[in-house]
Amino acid sequence: MANNKLIVANWKMNKGLVQSQQFADEMKLYLEKHKVIEADIVLCPPFTSLDAVNKKITGTQIKLGAQNMYFETIGAYTGEISPGMLKSCGCEYVILGHSERRQYFNETNAVVNKKVLIALDEGLKPIVCIGENLQEHEDKLTESVIDEQITACLLHVSEEGIANVTIAYEPVWAIGTGKNATAHQAESVHNFLRKKIKKMYNEEVSKNIKIIYGGSVTPENAKELFTPQTINGGLIGGASLEAEKFIKIINASNIK
Ligand code: PEP
Predict the structure, then answer these.
(1) Domain range spanning residue 36?
(2) Which atom of ligand 1 is nearest to the CA of 217?
């Protein structure tokens, strides 16, 4: 299992160009002062800031990701963004199937699967979001829900492809609510996911795949949430909007 935790900032529909650049500058300053931080850091700004943030972070350890993309490579799809366009802005990662995309834009597992396949074909690393909603959580349906999601979202993803996939377990009831899952809850779901991946692929893949947790991670709870070995990092929404908070979360991920 990889040692560095993967810490991903999802800014959602926040920050214009200037604010995005300011954030990148703050992060760069911090990294210059502290040399190597033992974490894999990814910033996912809105599309409109990708190029500008990329210019700022080139040559640093920070990587760039997008928050979504379309599942076609080119054509008459007004308003959509292709994987190639993301790559041309310097993206290495793309978040797919975020619960807000599922909730507000009707993204189904089948749509997420199309996006995962094309992202991999085009050389992007998908961060595939799955997770149960509050009702499902209360009805103790977490495992069956994520089993169905992961099966459908990874349909036809090869063993070569899965090596570039990160799974983000994001219980919907924990996103933006201030109510995080406990480390124990997240650990047990991550273990379930690894068993599932082992069945779908093999033991090697299940050990190596990065599974990160998302849902109300803060500087205060990050260390506890990142302590289980099976939790390979975090997808951070609200707390990634301020560089200082985000840096605290990155530092908390350096578990020895
Ligand atoms: C998210 O949007 O993926 C997320 C985890 O948000 P928050 O950290 O604000 O709960």
Answers:
(1) 5-252
(2) 8
